[in-house]
From TrEMBL:
Sequence ranges assigned to domain Beta-Casp in this UniProt record: 258-378
One function term, GO molecular function aspect: RNA endonuclease activity
Coiled coil: none
Organism whose genome encodes this protein: Rhizobium sullae (Rhizobium hedysari)
Gene3D superfamilies the record matches: 3.40.50.10890, Ribonuclease Z/Hydroxyacylglutathione hydrolase-like
Alphabetical keyword list: Hydrolase, Plasmid
Name of the protein in question: MBL fold metallo-hydrolase
């Protein structure tokens, strides 16, 4: 009997694209099949072929519905996978909504891109998958209950544990045959924070051979927020944002984060802590996801408060594009919650385009912003950004309230890992940017006895009785290890374009602007001596 082999095909050095392939006992199991987000270089991986043959996969185990964990499932089915996709019932309900929405967004964005490409005489492109592709694979979902062992061909079995991260989210324990007996492998999925409004504390077994653990917040501690403390901080943000002609924009993940923030806002208004004002949920996905939360409200902590918020007279959900566009005409202070949470797609980009240049706007980030995303760029203090090809000067105020994060922070992750002890062989840190993984890998050896490994994208490890062994040259990585989880050349290019524009605007006259452009041309082609009005460039011989 050969030892299990584990492949890291996503979320290795970055926080998106979660995808792990486990080969054991002649069975090939995929844990998650998520979409890459962040820099353009990472997102391009979504269009490339899978680094494995989809038709040879025997089963998919899905930890939860977030797109960075589930978003490429329709592509997987389209590429030939026809087997079961195991998930909790709540996860299936959310995926039914989210995957079709993802397909719709891709179709819409590709239509816009192709219009630009045709004008520029460039090749047109196809969406990764369509809404119809997403609908056609929904019958492959099979519901599982937490704590229930499921047997598979080849002697492998698995069970789900509540991860406390999102409605329906789970960690997954697998027991596989190995050369010297069963091998236990635990996938954390995304581990929930202790202060979640709707979710219970994350759970899991003790005593595993291998632990694959997320590290999103592996390098940071959040303040300890009781529910009242969190609402007090939110009250402060609303109070400082309440300009008579202004808006509080909240880029928010449409599933659970939106519902949590809405519940807190209405509670504050009901208690008279903040003035009642219009709250617009500008996301068709959030509207549909809210129906799924209503269906499962009995499973939620504070479920009654959530239902009360939905029925508040000042809450409106926009469905159509016309309703969304009409928000630009709203007068008086109001709050808009819109997806996507990292400002990478969806209606929040239209809202930002309309408001970022105004001082009456406050943007409140309530979730993790991955490197290279518009959300991270704004959060880090950019004064100029480009949205839909337009340069926008940023005058709006930025605020962050990480009390709503769905991820455990550093100490919570350490505690969750310690509860899995004894971890007999190794811990693999995934789903974290390099700084977060390095910080967590530096701390864990002082707390647990297992070896800590930080795999790179497309690495493969043999899970042997002696521990994890990297299989050299098993696969060729689709992207250089230094790229995931970082801004790429596209981000640098956009920054350069904005800096060049600022430089040209700052020069007093046309002659000065011509000098700047000549120097740029010389940098691009040092052997070429530019001419101005038919004369030799006077700067060419002086290196000025």
């Amino acid at each position: 009997m050969a030892n299990p082999i584990l492949h890291f095909h996503g979320a290795a050095g970055s926080v998106t694209g979660s995808c792990f392939l486990l080969e054991a006992g002649g069975t090939r199991i995929l844990i998650d099949c998520g979409m890459f987000q962040g820099s353009k270089s990472e997102k391009e991986l979504n269009y490339k072929p899978f680094p494995f043959e989809p038709s040879r996969i025997d089963a998919v185990l899905l930890t939860h519905a977030h797109i960075d964990h589930s978003g490429l499932l329709p592509k997987l089915a389209k590429a030939g996978y026809s087997g079961p996709i195991f998930a909790t019932a709540a996860t299936i309900d959310l995926c039914t909504i989210m995957l079709q929405d993802s397909g719709h967004i891709q179709e819409s964005e590709v239509r816009q891109l192709n219009r630009r490409n045709r004008r520029r005489a460039r090749e047109t492109v196809e969406p990764i998958y369509t809404a119809d592709d997403a609908r056609s694979m929904l019958p492959q979902f099979m519901a599982v209950e937490n704590g229930e062992w499921r047997e598979m061909v080849g002697g492998l079995r698995f069970r789900y544990w509540n991860a406390g991260h999102l409605l329906g989210s789970s960690s997954i324990e697998l027991e596989t045959p190995g050369a010297e007996g069963p091998v236990t492998v635990m996938f954390s999925g995304d581990v929930g924070a202790s202060n979640k409004l709707f979710e219970n504390f994350p759970q899991g077994p003790s005593g595993v051979d291998y632990l694959i653990c997320e590290s999103t917040y592996g390098d940071r501690e959040r303040e300890e927020y009781a529910l009242k403390d969190r609402r007090d901080r939110l009250r402060e943000v609303v109070a400082t944002s309440n300009n008579p002609g202004g808006v509080l924009l909240i880029p928010s993940f449409a599933v659970e984060r939106t519902q949590e923030v809405l519940t807190d806002l209405i509670a504050l208004m009901d208690e008279g802590e903040v003035p009642r004002c219009p709250i617009m949920i500008d996301s068709p996905l959030a509207s549909r996801a809210t129906e799924a939360f209503k269906k499962h409200s009995a499973e939620l902590g504070h479920g009654k408060a959530f239902l009360r918020a939905l029925n508040a007279p000042n809450v409106r959900f926009t469905e159509t594009a016309e309703q969304s566009k009409a928000l630009d005409l709203v007068r008086g202070f109001h709050i808009i919650i819109a997806a996507s949470g990292m400002c990478e797609a969806g209606r929040i980009r239209h809202r930002l385009k309309n408001w970022l240049w105004r001082r009456e706007c406050t943007v409140l980030f309530v979730g993790f912003q991955a490197a290279g995303t518009l959300g991270r760029i704004l959060q880090e203090g950019a004064t100029e950004v480009r949205i839909q090809g337009e340069e926008i000067h940023v005058c709006a105020r930025m605020a962050t309230l990480d009390a709503y994060s769905g991820h455990a922070d550093a100490s919570e992750l350490d505690a969750w890992v310690a509860e899995r002890e004894p971890i007999r062989k190794a811990i693999f840190l995934v789903h974290g940017e390099e700084r977060a993984r390095e910080a967590m890998s530096g701390r864990l050896p002082k707390k647990v006895s297992a070896k800590v490994v930080c795999p790179s994208l497309d690495d493969a490890y043999e899970l042997s009785p002696m521990g994890a062994r990297l299989i050299e040259d098993r696969t060729h990585a689709r992207i250089k290890p230094a790229v995931p989880g970082r801004p790429d050349w596209n981000n640098d290019y956009q920054r350069f374009v904005l800096d060049l524009s600022d430089r040209l605007k700052s020069v007093a006259d046309e002659k000065g602007r011509a000098v700047v452009l000549r120097r740029l041309r010389r940098a691009l082609d040092p052997d070429e001596v530019p001419a101005v009005d038919g004369r030799r460039d006077p700067d060419a011989d002086h290196g000025s």
